[in-house]
Amino acid sequence: MARILITSALPYINGIKHLGNLVGSQLPADLYARYMRARGHEVMFICATDEHGTPAELAAAKAEQPVDIYCAEMHETQAALARGFKLSFDHFGRSSSARNHALTQHMAGRLNAAGLISEVSEKQVYSNADGRFLPDRYIEGTCPNCGYERARGDQCENCTKQLSPTDLLEPHSAISGSTDLEVRETKHLFLRQSTLRDQLDAWIDTKTDWPILTTSIAKKWLHDGDGLRDRGITRDLDWGIAVKDGDNDWPGMEGKVFYVWFDAPIEYIAATAEWADANGLNEAAWRRWWREDEGADDVRYVQFMGKDNVPFHTLSFPATQMGANFDGSEPWKMVDYIKSFNYLNYDGGQFSTSQGRGVFMDQALSILPSDYWRWWLLSHAPESNDSEFTWENFQASVNKDLADVLGNLVSRVTKFCRSKFSEAVPEGGEMGAPEAQLIADLTTRIRSYEALMEGMEVRKSAAELRAIWALGNEYLQEAAPWSVFKTDPAQAAMQIRLALNLIRLYAVLSKPFVPDAAAAMMAAMGADDWRWPEDISDALTTLPAGHEFTTPDVLFSKITDEQRDDWAARFSGVRA
Ligand SMILES: [Zn+2]
Q: 546 CA to middle of ligand 1, Å?
């Protein structure tokens, strides 16, 4: 038994996530967590909402709520949707937790003790009316290049010219509209990542099993131009984690908070501490996952994320962890493998949270159960390339894979048995060559499925599972118990006994992808035996003759053309 720590990139708090976000980290992470648990490993699966930063403040202002209330409510909304999609987090935490405040301040203190923090004076725009410094994007004005009146302080979206706030004509605050702005000097802390460059470089070089895509992104940031740059870790905001040097005040940093990129990955650790707190466990319970000197030396740590998050997870967060261990006294568990994803597009364009384009998690669950979405998203996960959601493809995939292949097998076998025998596993007959062949074929495919799941090959795993389901249908097609029954009822009984056992086996194998359907299949078989099949022949004799089952309701309904067209129209525009 191994110990596996799994984290999914943290969903940002400013709204409900779309299906592209879901398949870019949380859902494949859940697939992997479920599989590893099914194989008997000890798993810690962590996620949380990422709650700090200006976008959270603005979303709260738009919702006319105080930012802490807004975040608390949106966290509950996101947590409920995660439960709806059956995401099996051990804990779904909050980056605004007391645990993360304390740990982020602690990490900053360690980095300061290591000499890895510098203070830098910057000139920034201050809005007197708003009583705050404004990030570049929240200053608007007229573009000096093209005359566009709503250019932002970082860029004109009309002519795409890169700007700095002082370039804008008639600049004003995007928050209040006030023109009472001035440039003020402000002091910020920087993490001196540049001094850790060689250490990070050597560490990346040990990751020989990482995809080239991942290591090449890290290497580019390490070596392009002047090499890895130092990064600001503080901001002039109200909402966030107060800048402290461990437990002590940080002179000159009063009223400032840590920059969200600094505290968010630390929440992976803090959320595990939140898990211990929520379960009444002690410090050792979470530290054995994160501290190599307190039990985490045998943990394998796997991170899931979209490709845009790779630089932070290969460089900035490792820099924080390495820096905090400058004297060898705090060996934090660092990532062993990063699984990153490309983008899922929506019907000829991009999913967009800001524009409300695409299908969002709440909308998806309002029209179909989570298994339908889980299956489509995972079997079309954007791994080697971007992939695209279309309603035609969704309908075809659900109807063919789930209804025709898996659902139909369960329905045919149970209904036939009920009508010709009873709702109990029938007795009689002996297995022959066709059954031996089926067992051999299943064994080959299941061993292949295991290897693909261990390797986090999401689409290929789905294809292998679909092929495993198809083997059952092919066997039944050729064995044809409905014909055999007329001349040799004992032979038909053996075939159906095998097929009923196949349903239980499919429940075990399919649970990581479609957990609700798997539970329904297992319950219908009157069983609760979720042991992973080591020997397929044994696994197919688990339910003995005489064992009672119930004929289940339809597992998967087909999507009609009317439904497809209705949904395509409903979700073609932008969300209100
Ligand atoms: Zn312009």
A: 77
Q: How far apart are CA 27 and CA 480, in angstroms?
A: 38
Residue 138 Cα to ligand 1 middle (Å): 16
Question: How many CB atoms are closer than 10 A to CB 54?
Answer: 19
Residue pair 316/231 in contact (Cβ under 8 Å)? The answer is yes
Longest dimension (CA), the chain: 93
Closest CA to 218 of 314, 336, 342: 314
Q: Provide the pLDDT for residue 575.
A: 65
Weakly modelled stretches of the chain, pLDDT under 70: 574-576
Q: What is the pLDDT of residues 457-468, one digit of tens each?
A: 999 999 999 999
Q: From CA 39, how far away is CA 251, in angstroms rounded?
A: 52
Please report, for residues 159, 456, 465, the alpha-carbon distance to residue 447 in angstroms, rounded to integers and kept in the order given: 55, 14, 11
- If you write DSSP's letter for every residue of 51-108 in order, what string do you get? --SHHHHHHHHHTTS-HHHHHHHHHHHHHHHHHHTT---SEEEETTSHHHHHHHHHHH
pTM of the model as a whole: 0.94
- Cite the DSSP H helix spans in 348-480: 361-367, 370-379, 391-397, 408-420, 433-454, 458-479
Q: Please tell me the distance from the alpha carbon of residue 266 to that of residue 317, in angstroms, as a whole number.
A: 8
Alpha-carbon distance 186 to 133, whole Å? 9
What digits encode the pLDDT tens for the residues 50-102?
999 988 998 998 899 999 999 999 999 999 999 999 999 999 999 999 999 99
Backbone angles phi, psi at 428, to 5 degrees: 110, 165
Distance 146 CA to ligand 1 centre (A): 4
Q: What's the rounded Cα separation, in Å, for the pair 335 and 9?
A: 13
- Residue 204 C-alpha to ligand 1 middle, in angstroms? 40
Do residues 378 and 23 lie in contact, with contact meaning Cβ atoms separated by under 8 Å? yes
Report the run of H or E that residue 193 belongs to, with start and end.
none
What's the 157 CA to ligand 1 centre distance in angstroms? 7
Across the chain, mean pLDDT equals 95
Q: Are the beta carbons of 303 and 339 closer than 8 angstroms?
A: yes
Q: How far apart are CA 249 and CA 240, in angstroms?
A: 16
Quickly tell me which residue has 């889980």 as its tokens. Answer: 374
* Residues in a beta bridge with 548: 424
Query: Taking CA 181 as the corner, what is the angle to CA 235 and CA 261, rounded to the nearest 5 degrees?
Result: 15
CA-wise closest residue to 368 among 533, 212, 564, 178 = 564
Give me ligand 1 centre to Cα 168, in Å. Answer: 10
Dihedral of CA atoms 504, 506, 511, 516 in degrees, nearest 10, equals -70
Rounded CA separation 465/459 (Å): 10
| DSSP β-ladder status, 42-49 and 3-8 | parallel
Structure token digits, residue 124: 């920034």
Q: How far is CA 299 from CA 222, 271, 292, 336, in A?
A: 27, 17, 8, 9
CA dihedral 88, 94, 97, 99 (to 10 degrees): 50
